[in-house]
């Protein structure tokens, strides 16, 4: 399952060339100019707009789900020390699954 703003991003058609996953830094798969609801309220209302939809190719993997939980906790915790410990766990997790030559690191790695 994708999480809006982390591993699925909605954009007005043609506004973004490339999007990277906020969890792992991977280049997201793009579906261009598709009618879609970008949230729960739009979906319930049956409302759809044309958007570009970017999704992480790793979002369904077990390691990515764990990485997402760590990212969310890093953002949520008021403790700098706990956040740094979680960043260390996250770096270890990503180093096992993201190529060493990846040119982009997610912003939360600091």
Q: How would you describe this structure in keywords?
A:
single chain, about 110 residues, alpha+beta, three-stranded antiparallel β-sheet, 3 strands, about 35% helix, globular
Question: What this model shows, in words?
Answer:
The protein has a 3-stranded antiparallel β-sheet, with no helix packed on it. With 110 residues, the protein is α+β, with helices and mostly antiparallel strands. It has helices at 40-45, 62-76, 80-97, and strands at residues 8-11, 29-36, 49-55. It contains 3 helices and 3 strands; from the N terminus they run ββαβαα. The chain starts with 7 loop residues before the first strand and ends in a 13-residue tail after the last helix. The relative contact order is 0.20. The model has no long low-confidence stretch (mean pLDDT 87). Helix 2 (62-76) packs antiparallel against helix 3 (80-97). The longest helix is centred in the C-terminal third of the chain and has 18 residues, at 80-97.
Question: How helical, in percent, are the residues?
Answer: 25-40%
Helical segment count = 3
Strand order of the largest sheet: 1-3-2
Radius of gyration: 15 Å
Number of strands: 3
How much is the average pLDDT? 87
Query: Structural class, please?
Result: alpha+beta
